[in-house]
Amino acid sequence: MNSLDKAIQLCGGLSNLAEKIGASSARIGNWRVRGVPVEHCLAIERATACKVTRKDLRPYDWQNIWPELATTGEPHEHS
C-alpha cells in the first residue's frame, strides 16, 4: 500500500480525507497517478496524526522542500 492509500484508509475513506484537507475526491484520486502536490502534504500529515508524513508522501524530494525535517529526523508537530 502506498502512502496516499494509507492516508485514505486511516481517514476512513477517500471522501473523508478529501473533507479533512479541503480537496475533492476526484483530485485526490488523480494524485494516485501524479503524486501528492507539495501544498497538500502537510494537511495529509495532520489529518493522519503524523501516521503518514510529508516524507512518506514525497520520498524523493522532501529534503529539498522541507530541509528542516532532515535535521530533526521527525515531522514537526503543528497546532
Automatic annotation (TrEMBL):
GO terms for molecular function: DNA binding. This is Helix-turn-helix domain-containing protein.
